[in-house]
Specification:
363 residues, two-stranded antiparallel ribbon, DUF4856 domain-containing protein, signal, DUF4856
């Protein structure tokens, strides 16, 4: 098994290249296709359920809230507490058993590093772990001695290795799509319909007046707003609607087309969000001697995690090797990362996810 690039603070345990095989849903014989089925304008179907995904997203929120306690000087964050939340069973659901296998190992290695940083009793600075506060006093973040914010590596890492991976690689894969589509279970629909709904749940969704909509207050539905110039959220939502309708009509060719649309647009969201934070870090660096390291390092940590998250989509144009190569451009000490390093990372991302080339500066 290949290894990640040798950063002592980053995803150095395992390279996930080759761990995610390309999965495409084979077309069943479409002899029973309802050629005249309707496609609604909203996700308004019978028996929609994604409660398990909501529970797991809530658990990630609980884990993040615990980690963020370390953003106050003198507040120690316990490795054991983080591990307990990560493995906590809530109604038969937990974070740990849905995380991509290699990243599960990596994330467990981050908990003690976050705890160690939180034990600092003085403010952080270059070469010194601790809490660093922004120039205006409004933001404080816990960094290690190299400016790495483990809270971001863990939370945003889970957005990739849990949510993005489960939806695009697992629930859209053969094992979840080539299943029963005849027997209807009250409240869940057919097995195939339920799996489709669960994939949507990992994007972050909620039900309002009987209609399922994106919950744009958190996770991918929230971050998709950063790439709205490309209508990614709209494209993903409409593809989920059309795919669910196609499943009801046993139109599996159309279902598979929508899977590819969702995978492509979700990839744009991940890449675009990385570029957004790289732009922010570059802006901070441009301040010269007055660099706000709290904001710079925070945004680099977010960008780094999103960059590596790109590899979890089986149709991604960014391989695990590509993702690690791009991340390497940021260096292994964010206090020392320069504007040219950040721009090189932006250029590499937009060369692979080319929809971003003309809009990168707007993100």
């Amino acid at each position: 098994m290949k290894k990640f690039l040798p950063y002592k603070f980053l995803y150095s345990a395992l390279l996930i290249a080759g761990m995610i095989s390309f999965t495409s849903c084979s077309d069943d014989e479409n002899n029973d296709v309802d050629q005249g089925y309707d496609i609604p304008s909203t996700y308004n179907f019978d028996n929609v359920s994604f409660s398990g995904q909501t529970i797991r997203l809530d658990q990630v929120g609980k884990l993040t809230a615990e980690m963020k306690k370390g953003n106050e000087v003198g507040v120690e964050v316990s490795e054991q507490t983080l591990t307990d939340i990560y493995n906590e069973d809530v109604s038969g659901k937990k974070i740990q058993n849905k995380v991509q296998e290699s990243f599960d190992i990596v994330i467990n290695s981050y908990f003690p590093k976050l705890e160690a940083a939180s034990m600092a009793t003085e403010a952080g600075s270059e070469g010194v772990a601790g809490v660093v506060t922004s120039h205006n006093g409004e933001k404080s973040y816990l960094f290690d001695a190299e400016g790495i914010e483990y809270t971001q590596l863990i939370e945003k890492g889970l957005m990739g290795a849990l949510m993005y991976h489960q939806a695009t690689a697992v629930y859209f894969g053969d094992s979840k799509m080539n299943v029963d589509n005849e027997t209807v279970e009250e409240g869940k629909g057919t097995e195939m319909q339920h799996h489709w709904d669960e994939a949507l749940g990992y994007f972050s969704a909620k039900t309002e007046n009987g209609v399922t909509v994106f919950d744009d207050s958190r996770y991918w539905a929230k971050y998709a707003k950063k790439t709205e110039v490309l209508k990614t959220s709209e494209n993903i939502y409409n593809a989920f609607i059309k795919g669910r309708a196609a499943i009801g009509a046993k139109d599996y060719s159309t279902r598979d087309e929508q899977i590819s649309i969702i995978r492509r647009n979700w990839e744009i969201v991940v890449a675009g969000t990385a570029v957004h934070y790289l732009n922010g870090a570059k802006d901070e660096i441009s301040n010269g001697l007055d660099v706000d390291y709290a904001l710079k390092n925070h945004q680099l940590s977010e960008a780094y995690a999103f960059i590596l998250g790109l590899q979890f989509n089986p149709e991604s144009r960014v391989s695990a090797g590509d993702a690690n190569k791009i991340a390497a451009l940021l260096g292994n000490d964010f206090y020392k990362t320069e504007a040219k390093d950040v721009q090189n990372a932006i250029d590499e991302i937009t060369s692979l996810v080319d929809e971003l080339k003309d809009v990168a500066a707007q993100l």
